[in-house]
Amino acid sequence: MFLRKLEGSLTRISMNGSFPKLNLEEISVFKFCKLTFLDDLSLRNVGLLHIKGIAECFPNLSILDVANNKIFSVDDIEELHKLDELTEVSFKENPVCVHKHLTDMVQDVVPNIEVVNHTTLKEAGHRYKEELANLRHQIAKIGNTQVGSSAGDRIIADAEADPDF
Questions:
Q1: 90 closest CA partner among 127, 41, 46
Q2: Predicted pLDDT at 6
Q3: Within this chain, do residues 136 and 120 fall inside the same structural domain, yes or no?
Q4: Are residues 142 and 82 in the same domain?
């Protein structure tokens, strides 16, 4: 099959409305291939009932669009916590959207989520900016403490003193 040959090399798949007479209903139809490099998955209007098992098929998703389907259970929101890289998700036009606290539920299971149903919650790259700030803080804590051996410190001192070193 076509997707089997591309396994591991795709970064984006869009199958919006690709199956007008066939409802996919479950993500598990993709279990035959593990697309570990897939970053962006759009499955709008394909008849999905739930997204159980999505992390097993697409473990590195950062963008998931499952708008215009038949997803109704809040259990599907729980599935999102298994997607460590997820930054954007859309459940628009799904029955699950009747929950007025849908965005809060998503944020509870995916604290680093940046966009829910096309509404920006945090600026893009927020997670990486936080990680960078933490690294800078750790480096500052180390400060001027000496690292290494006395022999290494002596070599550095000699190199600094001798321009021809």
A1: 41
A2: 47
A3: no
A4: no
